[in-house]
Amino acid sequence: LVVCYSTTTSSWSSRDPPFPRKLLTTNTCPSSPSLPAPSLPWSHAPFCPPPSNPNIGGEVPDDCVFIVTTFRASQGLSLVTTPDLASSIVSFLDDGFVSVRLRDHPSVSQRQQDTSTEKHDGRNGMGYTVKPLPGRGKGVLATRRFAKHETVMVDFPALLVRFDFLNSERFDPSAQRGMLERAVRRLPRETRDAIIGTDVVRDVIQTNAFGVEIEGVNHMALFLHGSRVNHGCRPNVFWRYSHRDMAMEMVALREIKPGDEIVHSYAPLGYTMQERQQTLEAWGFRCRCEMCSAPAGQIALSDRRRERMFEIHSTLGMAAESASLSKQRIDALVREAMGIIEVEELDPQLVAYHEVFARAYMSVGDVSSARSHVMAAEEKWVYYEGEEHSNIEQIKRLWEELDGLQEEVDEDDDDED
Ligand SMILES: C[S@@+](CC[C@H](N)C(=O)[O-])C[C@H]1O[C@@H](n2cnc3c(N)ncnc32)[C@H](O)[C@@H]1O
Question: How much distance in Å is there from the Cα of 224 to the middle of ligand 1?
């Protein structure tokens, strides 16, 4: 159990290069020759209450509350997670390691400069404003034009809570609530105030949080601005998370004009209207986005296209297993699916589709077409999921299979010669 702690002074400076790379740390941990030198950045002693129901749950160590008030230019971060997982991210807490590209984005640098003025009123240079919107609570509106592929917002988590902590009965609801309230209460005042009020912490976590992983373990992340972005069935941004930078980035999927609401999809892309509504029910709201308010005929047409797209995906998937389609038929289906993806503006879907296209071409020995789709799949994964994307292994396997196929084709060619 982590019992000692240290106070730190942030090294953040978005205006003064060079950017210092170290936190100034004062340790309260007793030094012991038998222990490695502690490098703990927590601003308070970690809070590790005994579980309410110690007999429920398995091997996983109990969750504690860890707070680092200096995180990201004193926005602060509270973690409710296990000591091991908290330790695993210690080096990423240092502001000095954030990529300059993210650190100097206007949504970060302007936010810090505007702390004493009217912050989110659209005159702040951030490029967006947070405002109440009819029927959707608060939402985020663009205050300038964003080009396709441009980063609209960079944000850092203020609260990270291990997903299973919320689901397990090891801590009863009042103990859970107590830990969450403590996690918020100890954050810097501005951040704490922005999280609405400690009595609704759990609701905030349930409705405003993003899923991010620490060492492959799911955590719910609350972002001060990112969590204000509403759902849209035809989103104009997607988000990706960098573990190294501990940063979430929202990137424009198409041009965004001043006054447009910035929306991302809470449901997997490519779903039909009914599937989207069912998914959003789990979020506890009925969608009131532009696409859901479109005329019935338009919705039906979009649904038919999406169903057809999934049908092509499964036909090509089966063909890849059984080599049951000709190259001409694969060409035609790939063209049709790409057409639907373009019309329906589902480019992020291509991460999965390029892989299926590649495998289908491999089944008919068309190495060159397969290679172009593996390359495209890899590029899309990095773009949409970031460089640390979880499918790296899958893509590696695909490249290996492709190399194996290339060797077979080369050997056949040699035999023919
Ligand atoms: C992540 S929060 C978004 C910010 C939220 N509007 C707020 O005021 O904090 C998710 C909640 O916003 C509302 N919301 C988001 N998208 C919506 C939509 N398309 N239609 C209706 N309500 C929506 C729902 O209440 C949902 O539970």
Answer: 14
Q: Are 136 and 188 in contact (CB under 8 A)?
A: no
**Is 230 a pocket residue for ligand 1 (Cβ < 6 Å)?**
yes
Other CB atoms within 10 A of residue 92 CB = 16
Answer whether residue 194 is part of any domain. yes
132 CA closest ligand 1 atom index: 8
CA of 264 to the centre of ligand 1 (A): 11
Could you give the ipTM of this predicted complex?
A: 0.99
Cα(136) to centroid(ligand 1), Å:
5
pLDDT > 80? residue 11: no
Is the domain of 232 the same as that of 360?
no
Domain boundary among 263, 287, 304: 263
Q: Residue 47: phi, psi to the nearest 5?
A: -105, 115
157 Cα distance to chain centroid = 11
Q: Is 97 in contact with 245 (CB distance < 8 Å)? A: yes
DSSP structure class, residue 296: H
Ligand 1 atom closest to Cα of residue 233: 19
Instruction: Please give the Cα distance from 353 to 340 (Å, whole number).
Output: 12
Specify if 275 maps to a domain.
no
Q: Is the pLDDT of residue 17 over 70?
A: no
Give the long-range contacts of residues 98-104, CB within 8 A, separation 24 or more. 98/72, 98/245, 98/246, 98/247, 99/242, 99/244, 99/245, 99/247, 100/19, 102/154, 102/242, 102/245, 102/247, 102/249, 103/12, 103/14, 103/19, 104/14
Predicted pLDDT of residue 78: 96
CA of 178 to the centre of ligand 1 (A): 25
From residue 387, alpha-carbon distances to 204, 241, 392 in Å are 29, 10, 9
Amino acid at position 137, single letter: G
Q: Does the residue 169 lie in any domain? A: yes
